[in-house]
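User: Run a structure prediction on this.
Assistant: Running it now.
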Amino acid sequence: MITTTNTIVVALGGNALAPAGARATVYDQFRHTRESLEAVVKLAAEGWRIAIVHGNGPQVGDALERNELARQSVEPLPLGVLVAGTAGWIGYMIQQSLQNALRRLDIDRRVLTVITQSVVASDDPRLSEPSKPIGNVLTEAAAEELRRRGVAVGSDSLGRLRRLVPSPTPIDIVEAEVVKQLVGEGKIVIAAGGGGPPVYRGPASGWEGVDAVVDKDRTAAILGNCLGADTLLVLTNVSAVHRDWGTDAATPIPRMTVSEAKAMLATGTLPAGSMAPKLEAAVSFIEGGGRRAVIANLDEGVSALNGETGTTIVGDTE
C-alpha cells in the first residue's frame, strides 16, 4: 500500500551483488542480492515510491571475458548490448529477490524491471578515453595479455589492475516518462541497470548504441530528477564520504552542503572511479531539485536515512 508521496531512488553498486576481487557464481550473486535489499524492503513497507538503479561492473566485465573466450565459436556482442543484457538478468535477480522478501512480510507491492537507454553526446571526449574499471582484478600476466591485444588496462581506486572501458556522461534517459508513470502507480521499478546502455540520436537513423558503460550513480541522479524524487540513496562498500581519504587521518563526514561537496571535489583527492562520481551525482541530484542525497554502506541504508551513519548531502539553504 502506498502511504506517502515521497519518492526515492536507490542506487546499488554492482559490487554489492558480486564483491570485487572474488569470482562470484550466479548463486553467490543471488545470495548477495537478497542481503542487499534490507533498506528497500523497509522503504516499501513504509509506503515510499521506489526506483532502483544498479551497477554492473563485475558482471559486464565477465560478459566481455565470455565474449573473448568464445569468439572462435560465436559472434561477439558489442559492449552496449552486453550492458543491456546484464541490466536484464541482474534486474531479474533483484526483482525476484525483492518479490520474495515482500511476500514473506505480506507487503502488497509489484516489482518490475525496465530496460532504459541513457542518452550521451556523440562527441563526448570520454568515448575515446577508457577510464571506467570493470570486471575482476587482473594478474600482471593477464593485464599484459590484454594490453597486447589493444585492450585498455589501469588501476582502480584500490590500486588493483582492471580492464578499462569508455564512460561518457549521461544527459537524459529515453524511457524516463514510462518509469515515472509506473513509480507513480506505486510499482517498484528497477531501471537504468548498469547505468543503462548508452545511446545517441543520429541525424537520420534515430537512436544508436554506443560501446561504453555509463556511471550508474550519475544516471540515478538524472532518473531521480526526472521522477521528482525527494531522496537519492547511494549504497556502496564505503561507510561515508571521508575527509583526508586514503590517509591515516581519514574521518567520515556526516553532513555536507552542496558547496562543501563541490569544494571537496575540486581538490581532486576523491577516487575518480568510485567516490568522486557518487558525490558528483549527489550534487547533480540536489541542484536538479532533489531534497537530499545519502551515501552509505550497503548494510547501513536504513540508519543512514535516519542520519545515524553515512553522509547526507543537502542544499546550501538547508
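DSSP finds eleven helices and 17 strands in the chain.
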